[in-house]
Every structure is written in C-alpha cells, then in structure tokens.
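User: Sequence recovery, please. Input:
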C-alpha cells in the first residue's frame, strides 16, 4: 500500500533542501573569497588574512640581532676590495668576509618603521602566507630577500619581520632604491650590492630601472634590456658578492626563506650557492626573465634536494615565481 503524504509535507521538505543547498554553497563561496584575498587582492581587509591563522597575527616588537663591526675610517676598503675582485678570491676568503661585515653591511634600524602602508601586515603577492603556513608559522627565523626594491612594495619578507620576529638580510643593488629602502627603517641587515653570478666577488655594470634593474654585462642581459619597453639604459658600476660570502659575514648559515627576484640572473646566482654548506629551507624564485626557462629552473633546484610546491603568477604578468621547499623539511 502506498503511503500518501500531505502536500504541505512536500513543500516543507523542498524548503529544507533549498536551505541546505544555499548554506553549503554560501560557505564554499566564502572559502573561495578568502583564498583569493590570500593570493591576489593586496587591498583586501586584513580580516581575510587574520581569519585562518593558527598563531598570533599582529605586529610584534623584537630586538634584531647585532654583529660587531670594526670600521676604520682611515682604511681604504674600496681599494682593498678591488684587489680581492682582481684576484677572484674564493667565497670563504677571510679577508672578503671581514670587509663585507665591516664596510658593506648596514645594521638593522632601531627607529620606528616609516612605511607608506603602516597598518598592513602582508605586502607580497601571495608568496608570504603560503610560505608562512608551510613553515608552520615559526617565529625567530631568518630570511634573505634579493631584489628588495624599496623595502616595502611587493616585499616577500616584511611580514616575517613585523609579525614573526625574524631577522633577515635585504639585498638591493640600485642605489636609488636602496636610499628609499633605508628610510623605511627595516629591522634587517641591508647591503647596497648585487648577488654575484660567479663564485667570487666582482664589479659589474648594472642597469638601473626601479623594479627592472639588473646586471648589464653580457649579451643575454643587454638583449633583455633592449627588448623591454620604456626601460632606458642607465648604467652604474656595482659591487657583487656571492650570497655565501655575505651569509658567512653574518655568521648565518641557516636561511628559513630565500626570496630571489633579480630580473633574469636567478639561475646564475643559484649555481654559485653551496647547498651542502647552507641550510636553505624554502625559496621563491622568479623564472620569467631568465634565458633557461621555467622547466630548467625546476630541474636544477629539484636536483639540489628541493620540491616544487607552487607557481605564483599575477594576471598582469608582474609576478612569476616558483616556490620550493627542501625535501624532508620538518618543523
């Protein structure tokens, strides 16, 4: 015998189903909006960034590390550096390490930040929250950002400094950018130099171009600058150091996060790094301007014991990074 239900029961049942479906999809839409705020919309309210954190997300005060400096105003360190450049001394030469420490590195600022957007915590294009989560929100780490620009715009490291109390190193070769960077009062060591594409220090021709500045001393680089729209040739002489040399000067052989964005020479710099002597846990590396291409970059970095986790790109082509993590990393 078939049981007949009153018409009101059918109507009530349909209403309940509609409510459940609406609730399910509204939750999914909210999750998608949060994800979009994490990775694409830097102007989104900070609440989107705060919502899913498992640890404190607010600016924290900390005392940055210090190293002893022995600067002698009568010492002609540039002449001494020229001799080391000409001799192509190895990356761990004690004279090189001492000169970098005493005459090229600037210590962290003790002054309050002077930022264009002081209330913001996250300044990157999505790299920072991803790396933060994959490093389990650790505090007290150490970062390196090469291609630091002005210390704020698009920074992949300012969050770690402001929120996670990390020490760090900012590398910027363009003296105009560096002058602005210094006004931000970052709590990190800074150096107005470029990372060497060789396993020794050297002077190079560098073409200034705000966020498109790069070494300009080989056919590949010259051709790249000539192809770029609205990028005039405006060259200077810049001192370059191997990354390993700078880190030895800081006494820092563990790097929790390395951001490498130098407009085309990323692969050449990576080839100079002794990964057996440095413990670099995660990296974000720009791939679009190098002649070797994305797949070659992946292959080379993965051969050093890393896995590719994510490709980050922005709709306008302004961001093209691959994020790598050391295999077997445990936090």
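Assistant: Recovered sequence (331 residues):
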């Amino acid at each position: 015998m078939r049981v007949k239900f009153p018409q009101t029961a059918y109507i009530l049942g349909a209403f309940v189903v509609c409510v459940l479906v609406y609730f399910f999809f509204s939750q999914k839409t909210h999750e998608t909006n949060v994800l979009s705020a994490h990775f694409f919309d830097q102007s989104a309210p900070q609440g989107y960034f705060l919502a899913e954190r498992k640890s404190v997300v607010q600016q924290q005060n900390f005392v940055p590390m210090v190293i002893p400096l022995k600067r002698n105003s009568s010492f002609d360190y540039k002449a001494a550096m020229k001799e080391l450049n000409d001799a192509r001394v190895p990356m761990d030469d004690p004279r090189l390490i001492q000169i970098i420490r005493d005459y090229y590195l600037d210590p962290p600022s003790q002054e309050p930040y002077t930022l264009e957007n002081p209330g913001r915590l996250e300044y990157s294009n999505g790299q920072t929250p991803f790396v933060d989560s994959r490093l389990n929100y650790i505090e007290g780490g150490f970062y390196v950002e090469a291609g630091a620009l002005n210390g704020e715009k698009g920074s992949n490291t300012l969050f770690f400094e402001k929120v996670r109390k990390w020490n760090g190193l900012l590398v910027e070769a363009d003296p105009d950018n560096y002058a602005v960077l210094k006004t931000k009062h970052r709590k990190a060591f800074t150096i107005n130099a470029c990372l060497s594409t060789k396993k020794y220090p050297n002077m190079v021709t560098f073409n200034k171009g705000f966020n498109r500045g790069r070494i300009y001393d080989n056919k590949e680089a010259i051709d790249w600058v000539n192809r770029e729209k609205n990028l005039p040739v405006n060259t200077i002489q810049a001192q370059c150091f191997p990354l390993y040399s700078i880190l030895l000067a800081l006494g820092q052989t563990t790097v929790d996060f390395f951001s490498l964005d130098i407009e085309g020479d990323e692969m050449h710099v990576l080839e100079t790094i002794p990964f057996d002597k440095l413990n670099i846990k995660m990296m974000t590396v720009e791939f679009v301007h190098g002649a070797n291409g994305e797949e070659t970059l992946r292959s080379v970095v993965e051969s050093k014991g890393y896995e590719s986790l994510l490709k980050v790109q922005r709709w306008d082509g302004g961001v093209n990074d691959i994020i790598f993590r050391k295999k077997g990393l445990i936090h």
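Residues 1-39 form one domain.
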